[in-house]
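User: I'm preparing a small set of examples for a lab meeting where we compare how different chains pack in three dimensions. I only have the primary sequence for this one, and I'd like the structure in token form so I can line it up with the others. Please keep the answer compact; I'll paste it straight into my notes.
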Amino acid sequence: MSVDVPRSIVLVRHAKADWPEVADHERPLADRGRKDAPAVGEWLATHGIAPGLTLCSTAVRTRETWKLAVHHLPHRPKTVYEERLYDASPGEIIAVINDVPEDVHDLLVVAHNPGIQGVAEALTGGAEGDSLERMSRHGFPTSAVAVLRFDGSWKSVEPGIATLAGYWAPHEPPE
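Assistant: Understood. Below is the structure token output for the 175-residue chain.
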């Protein structure tokens, strides 16, 4: 396969989680998270984002986010619940991305902050429109989505390789 294959990485931070008396890994979505997670799927569908593979942290809040979002997509992608994404650093998330099979062109990752925001910032070498300015100003709140595009192999993913093609968060103040 050519190293110039166009690819996309869609980074999603889990929706708002509750804080019950359970281990962090077992925290479920809060009421607001259960309302915001479907909006993630609606935004993805509206923007024609159709991942071939989703990698999702094994935490309850990430799995619930993805299960509520995926119903809005026209085609359900293969989903792998990946333990290495729970509480992962940006470098650890990039290592998981480097292991994606080359026949996948569009990848979606559902994970946690600060790692997911760190990956979005690290991989961004340029941006379309005002997406980078908006992401810098608003950070990466719960349910935020960053769409990154690059040409190459998954093993070539490293800082600065991608263009930030889109950014969205459900509670982002109007421009």
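A couple of notes for your slides: The chain has a mean pLDDT of 95. The two ends are 42 Å apart (CA to CA).

User: Perfect, thanks.
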